[in-house]
UniProtKB/TrEMBL annotation:
PROSITE patterns: ANK_REP_REGION, ANK_REPEAT. Residues 440-459 are annotated as: Disordered. Gene3D superfamilies: Ankyrin repeat-containing domain. This is Uncharacterized protein. It comes from Volvox carteri f. nagariensis.
Length: 500
């Protein structure tokens, strides 16, 4: 009987039909989804695991399906069972009961625990650890430990920061060490900071034994790297000191300490942060933005509360009521853990319609890209990114009010207006045009925003109107200048006649 029919019954979760087939057919059949790609295959057990029905998986196992069978990537059914948080944990339990290899390596040099960590499958991590999976092992020639793989997934946007921290806690409890260095000689803390994930690094610092004085391949501590930076993250500097990082640890090549470097730079804020005299109250007041922000910080500290705890409800209210000004003031004041617990970062602020708060987040955690500096290899600014994803009129207006130029071009010569037009985001286009975007600006393909190919009708229609308005305003201005010139000429002629 065709295996394709068997697969259809597995997909349809027809348990009785599957059981009847298993009386006549082998449970360990190889399945190639696309005949044109014979090198891409898996087995019925893999397929049943993907389907997510424990009863069908159990039926295949009862019929002696091979739990060690490998797909074209050398992944076992257990790899498949833990790669998606939506897969019922019962399936992994069934496979483990049948002695599935808990440390089997696929071609990517990943064990099931690596896969579960990258996916953020917390229940699967618990099951694998209980079954004896090694939590701090980096396979020979592999891509790192499960924890290091989870960190990479977070930095690449595949794993939410809040879930990453839960993964970290589970792996550490199972024996993973926060001081283990990757192939580049970086600890998890160093890797997060180097990847620009300062908010997550600050939360990792709340965990014990995270290696605050470990040295990178150049022989510098993370504190020294920050102090020597042109744009040190002050939150990170203060938290490193608070967690015991030494301000007197010498850099082997120059014998300078972080405190020496800060003093040589004449950076009072850094020197103060490195000295024990800097109190929590002073830090809170120093960080507050503007008079209103300072008043909030002072009230919180005077009351003896924690800015993070006291500020959480205020930030919730600001987001719900779209109070962009208040949210922007709170961003530099609240602890990173509070922002993460509320799932607040640049993208979520934009989605909530809080443009100023979004840019305050960028200024705090990604200061080098706070203006019109490119944020990716394509030369896009944050305004390009919002134009691509879509945002409200108010968000775009708020971002431009903070100095972002609507006419900055990326490497393709596209302005944010070109990008918004292609995405069909009329409100973004309207805000950009009202903010001074050049409707006739041409990109590297000599296309204006409206003359780009395959534009959605809504943006094409709006840009046609915008171009007409621009040309009408230009003609009116030219006419006014001509009228003024004619009046001046007529006045001079009349004066000449009177003189004669």
């Amino acid at each position: 009987m065709p295996i394709a029919d068997f697969v259809k019954e597995i997909d349809a979760k027809k348990l009785k039909a599957v059981q009847e087939r298993l009386k006549k057919e082998k449970a360990s059949q190889k399945y190639t989804p696309d005949a044109k790609k014979p090198g891409v295959f898996h087995y019925l057990l893999h397929h049943a695991v993907k389907g997510g029905d424990p009863a069908i998986v159990e039926a295949l196992l009862a019929a002696a399906a091979d739990v060690s069978a490998l797909d074209h990537e050398d992944s076992t059914a257990l790899h498949w069972a833990v790669r998606d948080v939506g897969t019922p944990p019962k399936i992994a339990e069934l496979l483990l009961e049948k002695k599935a290899k808990v440390d089997a390596l696929n071609k990517a040099k990943m064990t099931p625990l690596h896969v579960a960590a990258v996916a953020g499958a917390l229940s699967a991590i618990d099951l694998l650890v209980k079954a004896g999976a090694a939590a701090d092992v980096s396979p020979p020639g592999g891509g790192g430990t499960p924890l290091q793989c989870a960190l990479r997934a977070c930095c690449e946007g595949a794993l939410k920061p809040a879930v990453l921290l839960e993964v970290v806690d589970k792996l550490v409890a199972a024996g993973a060490k926060l001081t283990t260095k990757d192939a580049n000689g970086l600890t998890p803390l160093m890797f997060l900071v180097e990847s620009g994930r300062v908010a997550e690094a600050l939360q990792l610092l709340e965990r014990p034994n995270c290696g605050v004085d470990e040295l990178d391949p150049s022989g510098r501590s993370l504190l020294m790297v920050q102090v020597a930076s042109d744009q040190p993250h002050m939150d990170l500097v203060r938290e490193l000191v608070a967690k015991g990082a030494s301000a007197d640890l010498q850099y082997p090549q120059s014998l300078d300490t972080p405190l020496h470097v800060a003093a040589l730079k004449g950076n009072l804020a850094l020197v103060t942060a490195l000295l024990p005299a800097a109190t929590a109250a002073e830090v809170a007041l120093a960080e507050a933005s503007g008079g209103a922000g300072a008043a909030i910080a002072e009230a919180i500290v005077t009351a003896g509360g924690d800015p993070g705890e006291a500020g959480m409800s205020l930030m919730k209210a600001a987001v719900e009521k779209k109070a962009d000004g208040i949210a922007a003031l709170l961003v530099p004041l609240l602890k990173p853990a509070v922002l993460t617990s509320l799932d607040l970062e640049f993208k979520t602020f934009i989605a909530a319609g809080l443009g100023r708060a979004a840019m305050a987040y960028v200024k705090r955690f990604d200061a080098e890209h706070a203006g019109d500096a490119p944020v990716d290899d394509a030369g896009n600014t944050y305004l390009h990114l919002v134009a691509e994803s879509g945002g409200s009129y108010d968000v775009v207006t708020a971002m431009m009010s903070l100095g972002l130029n609507p006419n900055t071009a990326n490497k393709e010569g596209d302005s944010p207006l070109h990008v918004a037009a292609r995405g069909g985001h009329v409100e973004v286009c309207r805000a950009l045009v009202d903010g001074g975007a050049d409707v006739l600006k041409r990109n590297n393909k000599n296309r204006t925003p409206r003359s780009q190919l395959k534009l959605p009708d809504n943006t094409k229609d709006y840009l046609a109107e915008a171009e007409e308005s621009f040309k009408a305003a230009k003609d009116a201005k030219k006419g006014a200048l001509w009228d003024d010139k004619m009046k001046a000429t007529q006045t001079e002629s009349a004066f000449g006649l009177r003189v004669m």
